[in-house]
Amino acid sequence: MAIRERLSGNEAIAFAMKQINPDVMGAFPITPSTEIPQYFAAYVDNGQVDTEFIAVESEHSAMSTCIGAQAAGARAVSATSSCGLCYMTEMLYIAASDRLPITLAVSCRALSGPININNDHSDAMGVRDAGWIMLFAETNQEAYDNFLQAMRIGEAVNLPVMICQDGFITSHAIENIDLVEDDKVKSFVGEWHPEHYLLKKGESMSMGAYATPVYYMETKRSQAQAMIDAKDVIKKVGAEFGEMTGRTYGLIEKYMMDDAEEAIIIIGSSAGTAKEAINELRAQGKKVGMIKVRSFHPFPTEEIVDALKNVKAFATMDKDDSFNGHCGPMHAEVSAALMAAREFGPLGINYIYGLGGRDVKVESIEKVFAELEKIAATGELGETYRYLEVRE
Amino acid sequence: MKDIVEIRWHGRGGQGAKTASLLLADAAFNTGKYVQGFPEYGPERMGAPITAYNRISSERCTVHSNIYDPDYVVVVDESLIQAVDVTAGLKENGAIVINSGADPEELRPMLKGFKGRVCTIDANKISEEELGKVFPNTPMLAAIVKVSGVVEVDEFVKDMEASFKHKFASKPQVIDGNMRALKRSMEEVKG
Amino acid sequence: MSKYEKNTAPDVKWQDITLAADVFEGGTSAAIETGDWRTIKPVIDWDKCKQCLLCAPACPDMSIPVMADGKRGDFDYFFCKGCGICANACPFGAITMVK
Predict the structure, then answer these.
(1) Which residues of C touch A221 (CB under 8 A)?
(2) Chain A CB within 8 Å of residue C15 CB
(3) Chain C residue closest to A96 (CA)?
């Protein structure tokens, strides 16, 4: 029987870490993820875990600590947000290219400037090319569930995993959650026995060596394959998690998509708000639906193309802007996926929304669907690069 | 979804409005409800107006926005009704509960034409008399439970007693004071 | 060399390269000839050499071996790049650089 609890998203992540009992945590505090190492440090202090907690002087060092620990053969975790994630960037690339399956919890927050502590996805999207598997959560429950699955996924393909949730919106909101019993978590997550690691007896090796042009590209191609392979692993682990808890996960979640003519593609907590908007619009007889992207990297190209097949108009919702003069990061991915599949049917626009904590209401999502209805009816796309809920 | 109750808290940084909203979420959770309890975050500091929210329902609520049309509003600091539009969006069939020694009808003229139920409770006085200091959280929590009925009163009292016993295990003398404050508040809330 | 030698050879395919291009076994540079970088080479005149050993630690490529008997041996021309530092370090003019 699951344990009925109420926890904030940050509490839920810290609790998942406690149940996993990783070998090492290297962390530096930053709003809104500070509570994660804070709660976890209490578990360490109370002797509830035997993790080596390393309080470092920066996020760069936090990730360096994780890299060193994981390379040595340990399981390492960290947590961060916003500019803390930016500051980790150099080491994020190294963690991924050294193929170290570290797990990092991110409570997503806007980047400066203007200085802002509230939620959007600029931090996570800013490091999207670092080579990490990136899973996003709609709720505290999903943040917890994703964290429990992270090591199974990362260790299967030797890639680090970022477990993202929306700062404050879920990280600081108390909501109901079903926790998994400790023994079940233990047997699900299992133990980490890497084939090679620096402290392995009788095997000397170097990690992170210089690679000349003769080797660099083969190394990167091999890394790219791991991300391709991660798709199946994420689905397999998500299905197995479902058998244990009744909560099955894939790369995307489809909501009312079977006969949808207008759809949005969205990430994170606003997906829940969108569900309510869709319920209301469905009650009015409108054929609307949603694709929630759980796995941003690897990007679920086939799944999204397939889900959009019979859709007349869609909007990709980006809680971040690429400032490339035409679209946000997810719209670029969706557009490339459709192009690669030679699928030119659905008319797509892009909304930049919810930046720096701009509240996303049920009505906000309804406005998007109203626009999509017009586009579907007229076939006129209009401006494809739009800002939602901005005063103009 | 239909039975969802939405509550908005207005307080000042440091007064415990956020804590009160989390306590209400706890109390509702303990009676089997689905809850949300969350503050609106910003660069708060002591004394600045802050807002916190609760959604309470019998099914999981998926909405993750702030609350704009609350069923109930709780004002933890009376002076806020001048500074903040506390009745904004408040449903006419809902109610506002204000921490004040005044009668509800004395305050109504300051509520921008709000026609619904106005309640007052002198939470500062109760907490001073029962706890020896101004700590209006517990009486305000009790008042909103009484007014809204969002948690069944007997269950609430039982649950709070258990949580006080847990929370104040090392200083049991404050448990009685808190329980008296709680019960008095439910009796003395006006309007 | 290690059992992973073929996975780190210059013609390795991406499917076969070691994970993260990790290198197994230490001292793998011993297999890499750098002697062919040399344009001039040091030669020693054993009559002038006093076995003071000032040359050996000066060599950046450890190409002047010191033997078990505490005396220096001949140059290791597999690695010596011909930098000439040893010739400069020798107080007795025992080392000369030749084409």
Answers:
(1) 14
(2) yes
(3) C20
DSSP code of residue A169:
T
Contact A66, A130 (CB under 8 A): no
How many domains, chain B?
1
Among chain A residues, the shortest Cα distance to B39 is held by: A173
- Of the candidates A139, A162, A140, the one whose C-alpha atom is nearest the C-alpha of residue A149 is A162
Cis peptide before C65 (omega within 30 of 0): no
The predicted model scores a pTM of: 0.92
Q: Fold identical between A3-245 and A252-387?
A: yes
Q: Is A169 on the interface with B (CB under 8 A)?
A: yes
Q: Do chains A and C touch (3 or more CB pairs under 8 A)?
A: yes
Structural contact between residues A294 and A136, judged by C-beta atoms closer than 8 angstroms:
yes
Under the banding of pLDDT at 50, 70 and 90, the label for residue A90 is very high
pLDDT > 70: percent of chain A: 100
Q: Does A3 touch chain B (CB under 8 A)?
A: no
Mean pLDDT of chain B: 92
Beta-carbon separation of C14 and A204 below 8 A? no
- pLDDT tens figures, B6-39: 999 999 988 888 888 999 999 999 999 999 999 9
Which CATH number fits the domain that encloses residue B103?
3.40.920.10
For the domain covering A252-387, report its CATH number.
3.40.50.920
Using an 8 Å CB-CB cutoff, list chain A residues near B6.
none
Per-residue pLDDT reduced to its tens digit, A154-202: 999 999 999 999 999 999 999 999 999 999 999 999 999 999 999 999 8
With contact defined as 3+ CB pairs under 8 Å, the chains touching B are A
Kindly list the domain boundaries of chain A, sorted by start residue. Answer: 3-245, 252-387
pLDDT at C2 over 80: no
All residues of chain A having their beta carbon less than 8 Å from the beta carbon of residue B68 are 361
Tell me: the pLDDT tens digits for A270-321? Answer: 999 999 999 999 999 999 999 999 999 999 999 999 999 999 999 999 999 9
pLDDT at A109: 98
Chain C residue closest to A211 (CA)? C21
Q: What is the pLDDT of residues A96-125, one digit of tens each?
A: 999 999 999 999 999 998 999 999 999 999
The CA-atom distances, in angstroms, between A33 and each of A149, C3, C14 are 20, 44, 38
Which architecture does CATH list for A3-245?
A: 3-Layer(aba) Sandwich (3.40)
The fold for domain C33-99 equals Alpha-Beta Plaits (3.30.70)
Of B35, B41, B68, the CB nearest to A175: B35
Q: What's the rounded Cα separation, in Å, for the pair B188 and A61?
A: 56
CB contact under 8 A, A207 and C10: no
Structure tokens at A343: 């699928």
> Is the CB of residue A165 less than 8 Å from the CB of residue A140?
yes
Q: What ipTM, to 2 d.p.?
A: 0.93
Amino acid at B161: E
| Distance in angstroms (rounded) separating the CA atoms of residues A9 and A328 | 26
Q: Which domain holds residue B45?
A: 5-188
Residue A121's nearest CA partner among A142, A140, A135 is: A135
Distance from CA of A216 to the nearest CA of C (A): 8
